[in-house]
Amino acid sequence: MIYYCKRKPLQAALDGALTTHLSYERYAKSSTPNNRKGYISKTLHSSQGPLTIQSPRDILGSFELQIIKKHQTRFQELDNPIIALYAKGLTTCWLSILTELKNRGLQDILIICINNLKGFKEAIEAVYPQTKIQLCMVHMIHNSLKYVGYKDRKS
Length: 155
Prior knowledge:
Blueprint: H1 2-22, E1 36-46, E2 49-58, H2 79-88, H3 94-103, E3 111-114, H4 120-127, E4 132-135, H5 137-144, H6 150-153
Parallel strand pairs: 3-4
Antiparallel strand pairs: 1-2
């Protein structure tokens, strides 16, 4: 479960970074010579164990990952770079994502589970004011582990 919770946002951030680099959305037609070239599998060794991601590539090879550098295999902390990406606005704004979902027909959300990223709760309240917002238990447990000694974490 923790593996999935770490891989999914990291993968979304990597895909978003390539979209920003290429200046067009995935599956959209491009007028530039540089296009997406699929993915390459990469295994990172983190404090929580190995994590396999799919690193996006472009045809010209001009895209360089900012979170994970080329040939990097060790990654001590995955949360801080992900949160930094959201905070810096390198991924799509929460409000625009939620507005697009509403425009596509998602009329209401009964309950949503979030990890308390800055601005996410406010965006949900603006677009879906009657939604019940809950904090993700996985993130709450992970955040509480910083107060537990390393030797005690494994038990």
